[in-house]
Amino acid sequence: MLCFLPIFSVLVFSLGIHGFPGISIWDKSYQCGCETGFSLGKKYAYCRTGYPAVTHCKCEKSSCSSPIINTRYVKMTGCYLNGPKGSLVGGASDQDCSTYDYDQTKKGYVCHNDGGSSYTCPGSPITLDPKAMVCNHCKI
Questions:
Q1: pTM of full prediction above 0.85
Q2: What are phi and psi of 107, to 5 degrees?
Q3: Does residue 99 lie in a domain region?
Q4: Which residue, of 15, 88, 122, 136, has the fewest CB within 10 Å?
Q5: Residue 14: helix, strand or coil by DSSP?
Q6: Separation of alpha carbons 9 and 58, rounded Å
Q7: Structural domain count of the chain
Q8: Where is the signal peptide (predicted)?
Q9: Cβ neighbours, 10 Å, residue 21
Q10: Which residues of the chain fall below pLDDT 70?
Q11: Is residue 124 part of a domain?
Q12: 12 domain residue, yes or no
């Protein structure tokens, strides 16, 4: 029986080095709520969750939507168009934000709509949380 111990030890050690077949830390998929920010790349969506300690998630684009209205944008209210040199232009409006990022200095979000316009919208990660984008297939 003791003669099998070295063989068994080598086998376990080699599995520890090479990993178990079919199991990888990258195979695990996470759900991320994007209350701190959401942006789109060519292949992936990028989600920022948590505040003030922010976690960055890289997600499959098709797995992301706004849970309240089940769309690919988040509705924000009281937004002002960003003008030249950081000024705000015009009156308040509602925007469908396809990407957004929380800006602590402005105490609100920088929102970009599908038309390419940039807005500043009031809110915080706590107030946006229930309507923020949620991505279901993410890597942290």
A1: no
A2: 50, 45
A3: yes
A4: 15
A5: helix
A6: 38
A7: 1
A8: 1-19
A9: 7
A10: 1-27
A11: yes
A12: no
